[in-house]
Amino acid sequence: MPTVVLMDASLSMTRPVALEGSEEFQRKNLAIHGLTMLFEHMATNYRLEFTALLAFSSLWELMVPFTRDYNTLQEALSNLEDYDKTCLEAALQGVSNIVQQEWGSACPCQVVLVTDGSLGIGRGSLRHSLSTMKHRGDDKKFPLPFPFPAKLYIMCIANAEELQSSDTLENLEQLLTLNAGGGQIFTMEGPLCLKSVQSMFGKLIDQAYTPFHAVLRCGNLSSDVQVFPRPEPVVIDEEVEPIPRTILTDLEIVGFIEIGDISSPPVLSRHLVLPIAVNKEVDEMGAGGAEDTEEESSANQMAGKSPNFCVLLHGSLKVEGMVALVQLGPNWYGMLYSQADSKKKSNLMMSLFEPSPEPLPWLGKMAQLGPTSDAKENPYGEDDTKSPFPLQPKNKRSYAQNVTVWIKPSGLQTDVQKILRNARKLPEKTQTFYKELNRLRKAALAFGFWELLKGVAELLERECTLLPDSAHPDAAFQLSHAAKQLKLASTGDSQYAAFDHNITPMVTDFSGGDRDRM
Amino acid sequence: MMRLHHSSLVFVQNQSETYIYATRMKMFSFSHKTAFVVDHCPYMAESCRQQVEFDMLTKNRSQGVIPLAPVSKSLWTCAVECSMEYCRILYDIYPTHKLVNYIVSDSEFHILNTWNQEDQNTQELMSALAAVGPPNPHEDPECCSILHGLVAAVESLCKITEYQHQARSELMDRAERVSNRGRIVCLTNAKSDTHVRMLEDCVLETIQEQNKLAAGSDRLMQIQQCELVLIHTYPLGEDTLVSDRPKKEISPVLSSEVHSVRAGRHLAAKLNILVQQHFDLASTTITNIPMKEEQHANTSANYDVELLHHREAHMEFIKSGDLHPAGSTSRDSGLKETVTLKWCTPRTNSVELHYCTGAYRISPVDVNSRPSSCLTNFLLNGRSVLLEQPRKSGSKVISHMLSSHGGEIFLHVLNSTRSTLEDPPSISEGCGGRVTDYRITDFGELMRENRLTPFPEAPGAAGSVKAPSDRAKDQLERHTRYWPMIISQTTIFNMQAVVPLANLIVKESLTEDDVLTCQKTVYNLVDMERKSDPLPVSTVGTRGKGPKRDEQYRSMWNELETLVRTHVGGGERHARVLECVTACRSRPPEEEERKKRGRKREDKEDKSERNGKEPEAEKSWQETERLKGVLEREKEELAESEVIKDSPDSPEPLNKKPRLSVEEAPPPEKSRGPVSLLTLWTNRVNTVNSRKHQEFAGRINSVNNRTELYQHLNDENGMETHENGKGNR
């Protein structure tokens, strides 16, 4: 989930903060202090997050495009200049644009708006924007809700009392409601000082930037892992199951499936699964000699040298071309697999399926997947050439079962011509002739289209009269038999018009004389 | 660190939710239940007055033949075939959870199917419709009315479906969360607007009555909301007596809309639009599909095929404003919008895992047309097709994929934007990334043994029997009770001789034969020890030669015992295997010493005796097995070096040495003893080859296939090389 930091650079941010101490701070300094803390946290604990910095006043400017380089972000922050008045709408539009340009409209984002809470006056103020929102055309729509799923965190460099004296909080809350993707407004309590701004950003970090740690298990083998980005809570059905579901911190592998069998399944989200050394003490693998001054780096090195299940799993998944099915919660599953990027670096990834007992129809119910050793016969075949997947649905889809559709005249004409074509090749094509005839008959009966049955019967009778002298005698018998049967069906008489009844070829025998002709 | 001061501050918490929706649809929305009510009154027998030519003369027929008169469908036939088309599309895209109850109305109502899932397919409906037949034009019109059907539809909507029932029983005390909404699609020929109003009032009244009844019943549900879609259909050329009216709320429980449509293709087009609206569908036209011409097999022309699917598959376009590229309109579906995607000729064998954000079932708009069936057959045969999206900017990007799974075709949405996970640290840079001797091949083998397979649901066994997936987890647990992750941490798993036991011991239950095989394996190991066969022991962390052979065997036995002991709870037979191991294994040094002293002589005799008696065949078999083991381990190593190639500074695999010692230094008596198949073969080939030419002088004089060049220059050193004798690899 990329982050956009939207920093208020209006003049009001330069208001000094009343302090008992000697140093004088502006609100801007407090904001920068808070963001510095956020960036430091991300650089150490959340370093794969992409963050962009946007500054705004009446105009907006992309100070730093999406990056993982937190030094650049920090630098840009300290070089921030002061501009004129606050105009939030334009800035939000800016956020919307840059996120869509970079990540499209499906990628969830977090927007951190840092402001002093004076949201402008008159035209361009948030109050003005919100009040005119409903009277605008499609081309001038308010940027919220964002086209992408977004959480909006509003960091007010002001305390609640201060904000309550105006309608600021009300307006900001309206923003959150509009956004619909959720979020939170943070304000400072007590005197505006470094301590309280730290505390406020600390809460944001707890809320949005704590790494997700879990244990990945495969029977008795396990590894502590960080799942990045954090898996977000998911609502399955807003009506039947409105409580959001979160994934377990105990990720248990159920078994394995070939990549070809799982076959590019749809997923809710993708995450890196990074093994972590929770315990800095390294087991007997370490050959000693760690120097105190380089404790950290040598600990890392040792972690690299002690075997980790994730690396083993990744290696085997890659070599075998398989995925591991992993249970994320009750009736919720995901898959682990090896993913290589363009630079041939590969990683263990986890994709989450939709929470459901049967997220992939071609695998069936996940709980019904069991060990092959339980099957009477190895479903993969003794020589590994078969597969129990994909499962076939109970009913075939229309495109797989030769349905009859006569909505367009061409559909009907094609079906009649098929019969006619086969009629002219009787008796060789007797089977196909009757197959096509019965197909037409069934559809005509279902549609109550008896007139067509009569018509085709006449057609066959005429064909019979047009038969050349060289024709096989059987052709004439079959044609008049078929015509007669169609005519009988067209009366609706239950004896002849039953849907499940099939017209069968007339039994004739011209090869020998030892059987009576019908 | 800095977050210690929380308690002193208060923050404003917004109440709005912080989660992401998985599905935007409610399971029990209007589309869960659709009651089709089709008019079967005498006037529906009237012709729609659109003639269909069916006697198409082919070119080579004689000219004298007069074509037969065209046929014409009745209003009933039009209504039935259009409703069937509606159902066809619906069942293609939603084979479950979206249910249809088909009702026919004349002097009474006929309910053709139930809400049950097994009744939900067009075949069943067609069969039931055939039994109903066309309306009888001679029936008394006074007795006939669409009202019978409408009342039956309301009653039917009150009936609980399997899915509603299941959801209610799962939710227990929160069963009220399961709602009951539904839609009535009524195909009729109304007399006037007043008549339409009368029908609406009647539906509303029936809902109110039925809701009262349902309130006191367990098997009925009150209708919370009902959507009535009245379609007045009339023959071509007649003036309509009923006016169109958009959706309007008649009461909180009932909304109604009226469509006045001419029969035939107009009705078909209308129902096609409605099925898309009712089930949130959208249209995609696949363009530039190359197809062979029937007449000219050498040429191919490009065709377009229009598909329907859930609207969600277009979400990215809708949001990005790329939905309306110039000229993208459907020609014949009657809808305004279709998204055009270009066919990309598929690569042959791609078993790739695409990053796919959604997969939606499709249904071709024109299912029997040649282009449609060509495309669907191609896909059903197992090929996948990538689709390219032409963008406003003129750039192109692969945005979708068509692929079939088990006879169903899905439109996959592929992620086409930048990934937030790009450029992650490689796995070799993280924890455990520096380790190079993971048992990759062995774990791959374990994965193969733990592949999953679907099992049919045991009826009525819910709760009493373990779910197959739990059994799969149990099996993984058994298979990993003792599983060293790296080669240098294990001896037994590097030994081919242990394989039969290692494979069997993890089983849930053993047969007598299994126990026998395990015992044989153990005896075989005892034999190896007696003969002092080398073991593939790692020398990690040791200097020089490494542990002595008897120490190696001791640690091997320890490992084997550990493995078997973890499974001793498996039953009496597992316990017998452990007994066998503990009885046969070599003892710790003191004990061993004691024994040795007592048995030394005996042992010696025994050894020479065995060596003499042992059948040749078995020995050479062991030899080949050992060779296989070596080869396989080498393969393993190769695989590993391929896997973790992005750490150029990683140390040499440490286990190389001991293995090579296995390969290189067979005990002298071995090389003289029975020879392996490989050696036999190599010798034979060499002899045959040597007959064909005169051997090089150098080779004849070589030691270990190596001859010192320029021997006169390095006279003293030459001797050393010969002695060293370790060069030939």
UniProtKB/TrEMBL annotation, chain A:
<feature type="region of interest" description="Disordered">
    <location>
        <begin position="371"/>
        <end position="394"/>
    </location>
</feature>
<dbReference type="InterPro" id="IPR045814">
    <property type="entry name" value="IntS14_b-barrel"/>
</dbReference>
<dbReference type="GO" id="GO:0046872">
    <property type="term" value="F:metal ion binding"/>
</dbReference>
<comment type="subunit">
    <text>Component of the Integrator complex, composed of core subunits INTS1, INTS2, INTS3, INTS4, INTS5, INTS6, INTS7, INTS8, INTS9/RC74, INTS10, INTS11/CPSF3L, INTS12, INTS13, INTS14 and INTS15. The core complex associates with protein phosphatase 2A subunits PPP2CA and PPP2R1A, to form the Integrator-PP2A (INTAC) complex. INTS14 is part of the tail subcomplex, composed of INTS10, INTS13, INTS14 and INTS15.</text>
</comment>
<dbReference type="Pfam" id="PF13519">
    <property type="entry name" value="VWA_2"/>
</dbReference>
<dbReference type="Pfam" id="PF19435">
    <property type="entry name" value="IntS14_b-barrel"/>
</dbReference>
<dbReference type="GO" id="GO:0032039">
    <property type="term" value="C:integrator complex"/>
</dbReference>
<protein>
    <recommendedName>
        <fullName>Integrator complex subunit 14</fullName>
    </recommendedName>
</protein>
<keyword id="KW-0539">Nucleus</keyword>
<keyword id="KW-0479">Metal-binding</keyword>
<feature type="domain" description="VWFA">
    <location>
        <begin position="2"/>
        <end position="204"/>
    </location>
</feature>
<dbReference type="GO" id="GO:0034472">
    <property type="term" value="P:snRNA 3'-end processing"/>
</dbReference>
<dbReference type="InterPro" id="IPR039841">
    <property type="entry name" value="INTS14"/>
</dbReference>
<dbReference type="InterPro" id="IPR046471">
    <property type="entry name" value="IntS14_C"/>
</dbReference>
<keyword id="KW-0460">Magnesium</keyword>
<dbReference type="Pfam" id="PF20504">
    <property type="entry name" value="IntS14_C"/>
</dbReference>
<feature type="compositionally biased region" description="Basic and acidic residues">
    <location>
        <begin position="374"/>
        <end position="386"/>
    </location>
</feature>
<dbReference type="InterPro" id="IPR002035">
    <property type="entry name" value="VWF_A"/>
</dbReference>
<dbReference type="InterPro" id="IPR036465">
    <property type="entry name" value="vWFA_dom_sf"/>
</dbReference>
<comment type="similarity">
    <text>Belongs to the Integrator subunit 14 family.</text>
</comment>
UniProtKB/TrEMBL annotation, chain B:
<dbReference type="InterPro" id="IPR019355">
    <property type="entry name" value="Cell_cycle_regulator_Mat89Bb"/>
</dbReference>
<keyword id="KW-0131">Cell cycle</keyword>
<protein>
    <recommendedName>
        <fullName>Integrator complex subunit 13</fullName>
    </recommendedName>
</protein>
<keyword id="KW-0963">Cytoplasm</keyword>
<dbReference type="GO" id="GO:0051642">
    <property type="term" value="P:centrosome localization"/>
</dbReference>
<keyword id="KW-0539">Nucleus</keyword>
<dbReference type="GO" id="GO:0007346">
    <property type="term" value="P:regulation of mitotic cell cycle"/>
</dbReference>
<feature type="compositionally biased region" description="Basic and acidic residues">
    <location>
        <begin position="587"/>
        <end position="648"/>
    </location>
</feature>
<dbReference type="Pfam" id="PF10221">
    <property type="entry name" value="Mat89Bb"/>
</dbReference>
<dbReference type="GO" id="GO:0032039">
    <property type="term" value="C:integrator complex"/>
</dbReference>
<feature type="region of interest" description="Disordered">
    <location>
        <begin position="532"/>
        <end position="552"/>
    </location>
</feature>
<keyword id="KW-0132">Cell division</keyword>
<feature type="region of interest" description="Disordered">
    <location>
        <begin position="586"/>
        <end position="674"/>
    </location>
</feature>
<comment type="similarity">
    <text>Belongs to the Integrator subunit 13 family.</text>
</comment>
<dbReference type="GO" id="GO:0051301">
    <property type="term" value="P:cell division"/>
</dbReference>
<keyword id="KW-0498">Mitosis</keyword>
<dbReference type="GO" id="GO:0005737">
    <property type="term" value="C:cytoplasm"/>
</dbReference>
